[in-house]
Structure formats: structure tokens, C-alpha cells
Amino acid sequence: MKQASATVNNDQAPIGFAGQWRNFILGFQHLLAMYSGDVLVPLLIGHYLHFSTVQMTYLVSIDIFMCGVATLLQLKQTPLTGIGLPVVLGCAVQAVTPLESIGGKLGITYMYGAIIAAGIFVFLIAGFFAHLKRFFPPVVTGSLITIIGFTLVPVGFQDLGGGNASTSSFGAPVNLLIGFLTIVIILLFSAFARGFMKSIAILIGILLASFIAGGLGQVSLTPVSEAAWFHTPQLFFFGVPHFNLSAIITMILVSLTTMIESTGVFFALSDITKRQLTTQDLERGYRAEGIAAVLGGLFNTFPYSTFSENVGVLKMSGVKTRRPVYYAAFLLLILGLLPKIGALATVIPEPVLGGAMIVMFGMVGVQGVQILHKVDFTKNANLLTASVSIGLGLGITMYPQLFQHMPTEVQIILGNGIVVTSVSAVLLNLLFNHKWARHE
After folding, report:
1. What is the distance between the alpha carbons of residues 305 and 308, in angstroms, rounded to a whole number?
2. Which of 136, 372, 400, 404 is the most exposed place for a label (fewest CB within 10 A)?
3. CA distance linking residue 36 with residue 353, whole number of Å
4. Contact (Cβ atoms closer than 8 angstroms) between residue 248 and residue 114
5. Distance spanning both ends of the chain, measured CA to CA
6. Distance (Å, whole) CA 218 – CA 112
7. Are 296 and 31 in contact (CB under 8 A)?
């Protein structure tokens, strides 16, 4: 058993055909975990900007393709880029509202110009931002990872209820049945399955629940029939980017929030894989996200950030190597070129995805609690740092409109519970635990 465990954590160990097949299935599980969250961003922005069917098809398929490119940039360590952790990258959902505003007021070419400029900014400040690592001790990272997980659980419940809480069908018995059935299947396989079947409990839950939902008439294959067979990335598909200072500043602020969130995910993965992150690791990770954003702007997609959904998948599967994620990245590339095949993943009912998300996001939150368990809470300083920062993050997540009378730029930062938790935890930790503070 010990030898098998060592193999699971060794990216360099040779594996046979059976091992490659297992990694492929695990990669497919990672793909399904992030797919809906990623496709949601181009759908929201495309509908808001009244894109045609042709434009929407391009936007979704090439966005999927670029997710694969961005993931590969992070997986493979080079002297310049790549954090080298089992991470999956997708569209930064916090960019949706700012991009809709820029695209609606100035035009889509200014939207992509702002994305490119923000990506360059992230690339240039990667070194400086990485040196902030000392400001993220366990009391800060634990609080941040806890809030990343637990503030996303309501998103899972929203999907479980049907997706749109304002519709009359939200919470319909069939939605609840499918959603909670997904959770039950995942839990049963996690509790009673062994070996590989246990590691793909999330995938099995999603597939079985989707088949059951299909039998109940909750699955439509219309997106598959309407999708094109083949699509290739095109430079400046929507036009040559234009640049506007206010749009650029807005997207830079969004990029700072995604960098903070990615930092939390990096440390969560570091804790899971038992690999200590260096300043150089973080620097390469931020640079990879900067380059991914620039490529997104050039090929008219979006900025990309590390997906916290897949931390839960990693925790559930127990497989901590990068091999499955390489398969996920290559699957994203293929699906991005073959929209009709990629559309198959979009037919998974929202209640199924919601059920899986509740399990995964809960796992991420508990990962943060595990890190906080290492903190000495007999010290009032640590207790206040964690409790206040987590409380602020939860409060802002529930009522982001608290700052609706502030300038838009301020709302972008203070309206994000994850960012508020991170900033407050860093500042409180400095206030209470720095050398100038009075120690108990």
C-alpha cells in the first residue's frame, strides 16, 4: 500500500496502459467539474452583448480551447512560467460584470484591449506579488481557503434548485430529487467503493445522475445538434483590440482579485500535495495567468484564473499528480476544436452539477479548516484574525450591494468576499502578529 501511495504522488514514475487509462478517466472528471463554470462566462457575456449564433459558437468553443492552453501553461514548469501543481484554469467569473460594462458602453474591441493590458500588468508584477508570500501564514491562507470553499457552496445550491432562483421552477421536486441524488451517489461511492472507483466518485455521480435525469425528461440534446462540427482559433475574430484607460484600470483591479484567489488555491494545493511553494513558484504561476489573459485577449476570449472547483476533485480522488490534469487540458483543446462533441458536456442538468458542487466546495472549505487547525488559537490575535476576516468575507458574499454607492472600481474590490477576507486577514495578522504588536 505504501508503494502504491508513493506512485500516486510521483509525476515521473512510469506507468502502463492501465495507468494511463485511469489518468484519462480522472482527467475527464476534472473536465466535468470545471466545464459548466467555464462555459457560463462566455454564455453570460455573449447574451448580454447580443452575439449572433455564429459569434456565440466561436466564443464558447475557443474559450474551451484556451482553457486547455492556459492549463498547460500552469502545469509545465519552465524558467519563466508554470507553478507545476495539478491545477485547472478557466474563465474568471468575477470578470463577467466588468466585461459586460466595458463591452456594452465602449464596444467589444475595447473589452479585449483591456484584457490584453491587464494580462501584461499581471505578467509584469508577478515578481513583486510573489514576494508577498510572507504575508500569507497559515492563519491567513486557512481563512482564505475556507472562505473560497464555503462562499461557493450557495452557488451549488442555486444550481441544485434549477439555476435561476427567480423562476417559478426553482426548487421543483424533480430538481431537488436529481440534485440530492447526485450527492447520495457521490457519498455512496466515496464510502463503499475501493481503489479507482472511489477516486472517480464525483464523475460517477455526475454521469449516473445525468442518465437518471434524462429518463425523467430533464436532458435536452438541442445544444449538440445546433453546434458546429469543427472550429479553429482566429486572431482578432471580433476585430483588432482598442484601448481605453478606464477600461484597462477596471480589468487590472479584476486581475488583482483573481491573483489573490489563485494564491489561496495555490496554497490549498500545496497543502494537499505536501509541496512547499517558493517565491519563484508563485512568480511563475502568476506569469502563466498573465500570459493566458494576453492570449485570451488576442483570440477574443477572456482572462483565466485557477479554478477552486478542482481542488475539491483532487481532495476527493486522492490522486495528487499532474498526469490526470494533462489529460483534462488536452481534452479541453480537443473539445474546443470540436464544438459538437464539447456541447455534450453542456447537456448535464444544472441540479446534477449543483449536487456535485456542494460536495466539492464543501471539501475546499474543510481544507481551509484543516490548515486553520495548525494555528495556535490560544492566542487571541490568531482567533481575531481568522474570525473577523472570515466573518467579513461571508457577510460581503451575502450582501455585495453593501458598497453599491461606492465608485465602480471600489465595488469590484470590496464586493468580492474572497478579496475582503484575504486583505483583512493580511492586515489583521500584521496588526496583531507583527514584531511591533504586543504579544500575549
Report:
1. 9
2. 404
3. 8
4. yes
5. 45
6. 36
7. no
Please name the amino acid found at residue 137: P
C-alpha cell at 276: 512547499
Burial class from Cβ neighbours inside 10 Å (0-12, 13-18, 19+) for residue 168 reads exposed
Q: Is the dihedral of CA 43, 166, 421, 308 positive or negative?
A: negative
Collapsing DSSP to helix, strand or coil, 392 comes out as helix
β-pair type (304-306, 89-91): antiparallel
Q: Give the chain's length.
A: 440
Cα–Cα distance between 327 and 203 in angstroms, integer?
15
The per-residue pLDDT string of the chain (440 residues; one tens digit each, 9 = 90 and over) reads 333 333 345 565 556 667 788 888 888 878 877 776 677 678 768 767 877 767 777 888 888 899 999 999 999 889 899 998 888 888 876 777 678 778 887 889 999 999 999 999 999 999 999 988 788 888 988 898 888 788 878 878 888 998 778 888 888 999 999 999 999 999 998 888 877 777 778 878 888 998 899 888 888 777 777 777 887 888 888 889 999 887 888 788 888 878 887 888 888 888 888 888 899 999 999 999 999 999 999 998 888 888 776 777 777 777 778 888 899 899 899 888 887 776 666 677 889 888 888 887 888 788 788 889 889 898 899 999 999 999 998 998 888 888 888 887 777 778 778 788 888 998 999 888 776 555 54
Structural element, H or E, at residue 89: strand 89-91
**C-alpha grid cell for residue 225?**
445538434
